[in-house]
Structures are given as structure tokens and as C-alpha cells.
UniProtKB/TrEMBL annotation:
GO terms for biological process: carbohydrate metabolic process. It holds the Pfam family SASA. Residues 112-302 form the Sialate O-acetylesterase domain. This is Sialate O-acetylesterase domain-containing protein. Residues 1-21 form the signal peptide. InterPro entries: SASA, SGNH_hydro_sf, SIAE.
Amino acid sequence: MCELNVFSLLCAVSTLNVVWAEFRFASYYGSHMVLQKAPERAVLWGYGPNENKITVILVGQQQNQEQAVYVQNGTWRVTLDPVKAGGPYNVTAVQQGVTGASVTLTDVLFGDVWLCGGQSNMAFLISQVFNASAEKAQATKYPDVRIFMAALELSQEELIDLRVVQMPWSVPSAELVGHFSAVCWLFGRYLYKTLGYPVGLVESCWGGTPVEAWSSPQALQKCGLERREEDDSSYLYISPYDTEPAPKRNNSVLWNAMIHPFLNMTIKGAIWYQGEDNTAYHLDKYACAFPAMIDDWRAAFHEGSGGQTAVDFPFGFAQLCTHSRTGKDEGFPELRWHQSADYGFTPNPRMKNTFMAVTLDLPDYKSPWGSIHPRDKQDVAYRLTLGARAVAYGEKGVSFQGPFPAKFLVGGDSINITYTQAVSVTPSKSVFEICCTQEKKPCSSNSTWLPAPIMQWGQRYVQVSIATCGKMVSGLRYAWRDWPCKFKSCPVYSADRELPAPPFLL
């Protein structure tokens, strides 16, 4: 027998699969799960002997329903009628016939299901954050925020189901939450406080992985990245954030094993924290590859769920934080820019129904897990939650974007930058930079960039000096470095100093 705790959950799941080798639910359904609430319809599926009739019964105080379906090609599938948020329910699948076998899932809730993906900063655990003990102690106060984790697996082919489940659907406890994604858990917890109904969190992430590994071949083809890395000399790079090239970085292997199996599930949306690996790998392609991945996920989940997951489901992501205080490499600022498809903000015309949490003001030089893994995941999750409330749920009056330039006016030896909203400003001699050229032409990282000190500011503007140029000013940028400021001390914030201005390049 397997004792059911965080260290033997995998054993428990493996045992379940043996017992129901011929008739069972798919791997990511289980007791304590959250299914997507109305108006969407939740999809349930599993395995059974061909041509057998399967009846799925939903029983609860709020609603009962029953649906029958036949097994085809070894699988069965039903789409429930819409169910309002709440619970608990029991879901029973009954195999009609001589055996009369049945499987019952208990304590099932209906709410919003969010998928959490990315690399190591999404995988970063609650037990690793600032105030970890206090965060874990709060877990039992949120029994309606349920958690699930896919195991680390890769595949050369698209899988219809997860090979292994790391953590089956669970009611949160201090121990379980301590081994769960910090950003994912905190996002769900903060969101629950606003929604007041169940939230299901599905973690599927792996540290040290590029966006190409999480993208389908179709998405990669749109950006000229369809070749497999073993046929690409650039694959031989050694990531500065991991030990060596590894199979987990190959094209589509994590899409195949850790995303594609979920396509039948109805979800509300997704959040994402990834990009560090791409600062040194196909950096110039990220502005194409990341939006293409989002588009492809949306289309695939919509089709896989039979149209129940929205074709434009909300997608939130964390803009990269920091890594090196003294490094001159521009991989991080360029990747931040490419995360927004080179717009600098979201939503934008290329990335509709998205939201971005700016995190460049949350560095952590003393992090025991390296400065690339800052411990303040509370602010990351909070800023993502603001975006979800505004974009995914249409909540009015929720500010989720920091100030962004709306207009530039060059006059004399200064540039006046007008922002989209009121700003709070502190002096800086170097966070703004200008590109100086002999003639008007586009600027790049190899161009001559000089500091443009802040001269003065007002309610919605910042004025910077260009007196040091002496030539033509062909570009302006803000916070364009790996580590632009100290903790929560960047020069430009929203008027309430809650949200930092994102970096920009003009």
C-alpha cells in the first residue's frame, strides 16, 4: 500500500492506473478536482473496452445530471451541461455490461481552471519564497483553491494523456502547497479572494527550458523554427542558467508530453513565466515565437475541448525580472521587449486578451537559489492577479498596467515624455538613454547610447536631457539593462507607486 502524502503521491497515482487499466478516467481527473464552471461546459473523458456503454453521473445538492456515451478507439468522452460555481459533487462513471464496473470521484468543485506554465521561476516553490512559513500556514484557509501538478516528462510524439501525475488534485495543506509553484498558488489564492468561488490550478512547467520546447511544430513553423535542434548548430549552446544542452530543450517535446494531454480539458485561462532560457537562444525569434505559441495553444485548447475553452482565452505572463547586477549583456532587456511582441505593453494588437506583470523592479541579489530566481513571488502573483481581474474578468476600475509613453516632444536640449497615466517619479541620471547618430537611422544594441538624466517631471510627464548628444537623437529607451534599479526603486511608477513603468525602446 502507498501512504498518500506529498512524497508518495506518484505511487498512489501509479497504483490507481493499475487497478483501472481497462476502465478509468484520464490521468488528470480525480477526487477534489475543479471542473470549469458555467457558462462553459466541462469535458470528462477516460478509457474503456471498445463499444461498451459508459454512463457518467453527476450528483450534488445544486444539480444532478446523467449522460451516456459509447467507447470508441479505447476512449470515452462526455461534455457536461453547464454547472454553476460551487459544490461538492460526486462524479461517477459506470461501465454497463457484465462487470458493471464504476469509478467515483468525490468532492468535485466547479469554478475556474487556470493552467500555469513556464520554466524555473514558475516552478519556484512556495517553500522557497520570502516568508515561506507564513505562506504555507495560510494554505488550509483556502480549501476551495485546489492544486494539480504534471510530472516532468518529454515526448517525441503528441500524447493524449499524461504519462505520470506528480500531484493529483488535492485540497491544499501546508505540506502540499510547500511543494507547489509559488506564482501559481499565490495567483489562485489572490484570485479566489476576488471571485469568491473555487479556483483550480494546474501546474505544468520545467526549469531551464526555451519556448520552443513548449510550442507545437505548427507554431514553430510560423517563425522559421520548425527544424529540430539536433539538426541546428545553435542547439549546442550551453545555457547560462542550466548545466548543459538537454533533451528537454528540443522542439515540441514538452508541448507533446506536458501540454497536449490537457487539450480536452476546459480551462478559463493560463499564466506563464518563462524566457530566461531564450535570452541566450533564438533571442531574435522570441517576438514571433511567444505570440505564436499563445495563438496555437488557444486554437488547440478550443478545438480539443469541443469549443468549450474560449478560442481567445486570457493569457497572462510575467515579464522577466533580473539576473546580473554588473553584466553588460542586453539579452534580458531585449527579451522583455520581445515578450510583448515589441510593443512594450499588453494587451496590444498582436497579443489580444493578454496581460503582463512587470517584474524588473523585484531583484534579489541574495537569493539562495541564485539571483535569477528572486524570492518575492508575492508581488509577481499580485500583479498577474490585477491583470486577470481587468482582462479575464472585465472588472472595472482595476489598474493593472504601469505608465507607458503616449507622446514624445523634442525641444532644444530635452525630450518631454507624456505618459498614459499619472506618474510617481524619483530622480535618475542614467535610467533613460538616448541613441546618438550622425544622421537619422534605426538604432540597435550596438549603437551609441548615452545617459539622458531626468530634468523635471509633472503629473503625467517626465523631461530628460539630451544635451550630451551633440548629434542627432535617433532613439530613446528606458530601463534597458538587465538590472535597472534596486528593489521597488525604479524611477517611474504609477501615481500610487504600485506598478512600475515597463521598459521601452523608441
